[in-house]
Each structure stands twice: as C-alpha cells, then as structure tokens.
Amino acid sequence: MIEWEDLAYQTAERFGGTMPHPETAAAIANVYAKAPTAVAKAIDRTAADYETGSIRSPWGVLKSRVQQITITKTSNARANDNEKAVQRAEQWIRNAGLHYDRWDEIHDELYGDRGKLRDHPATEPRMRELWHDLRPLGEQVEHEAIQRGLRYQAQKAAK
C-alpha cells in the first residue's frame, strides 16, 4: 500500500498540480487509512471527471466522495449488527422462547430493559409471528413431558 503523502502528490499531479487544503487532506487521509482501495477508486473517478471538465474543484469533490465511503461502511455495519441481533433473537425463540406460554414474557425478554431487540421495536411483529408459529411445538414438548411423568409415576406405583 502506498503512503498517503505519496498518493497525495501523485493525485495533485492528476488534479492540475494543485495540493489540497490541509483539512481536506486530513479528511481524505483518515478515510484512506481505513479503506485505501475505495479511496484509490474515488481518486480515479474524480481525476477522470476533472479531465473531462465536468468538475472544477477536484479535491473538494474527492473529499465528498470519500466521506460517502465511510457513511456507507458505517450504515452497512449498522445494518449487519441489526440483522445479527434479529437472527440471534429468532434463534432464541426457536431454542427457548417457544416454551414460554405468554407473549408478554417473550416481549419482556426481547424488548425489555435488557432485551436483545430493545433498540429494534419494528421487529416485534416478525418476532411475535415466529413465536406464534413455534409455540405449538413448545406445547407438544410440554405435553410429552407430562405424559412421561405420568407413566413414570404409574410404573413406580405399580412396583
């Protein structure tokens, strides 16, 4: 990976010999440290736009484009975190939540003060539907456990 200072000089040559304002350079360098390939692509796009005359302030345009890179990465990371939280909650419902006999208990577990989805209230209809779909399995497991217990008691009484 090329150092930012060297890349800045190479980019300045492509941008008509102008160097960026120090604040602009710092903002671009900050993003370059995190996503060098994306910044290099943004430089190529900006240089092409500058050469065709469609932009007049290439450093400002480049700064704007690389800031979009961090916004996109941040929003993608946030979306991934949200989806992971939902997936964990769905797995919890499949493993344990189906044994809860009231939605209020599930709601408290998922959306209460320490709930896995307390920051994602829009997921409630999805989780409620999943619980309603899986609850019969939990009831079946409970019924089978009661039947086993009764058989065991009957066997024990018969001895």
Structure overview:
With about 160 residues, the protein is mainly alpha-helical. It has 2 domains: about 1-80; about 95-159, no CATH class. Helix content is about 75%, strand content about 0%. It is built from 6 helices and no strands. The chain starts with a helix and ends with a helix.
Taken from the alpha-carbon principal axes, the silhouette is rod-shaped
**Number of E-state strands:** 0
Any low-confidence stretches, pLDDT <50, length ≥5?
none
Strand content: under 5%
State the order of secondary-structure elements, H for helix, E for strand.
Answer: HHHHHH
State the helix count.
6
Helix content: over 70%
List the helices and strands and how they pair.
Layout (H helix, E strand, L loop, with lengths): L3 H11 L7 H13 L1 H17 L5 H38 L7 H9 L12 H35 L1
Helix pairs in contact: 2-3, 2-4, 3-4, 4-6
Give the tags.
mainly alpha; 2 domains; 159 residues; 6 helices
Quick take:
This protein has 159 residues and is mainly α.
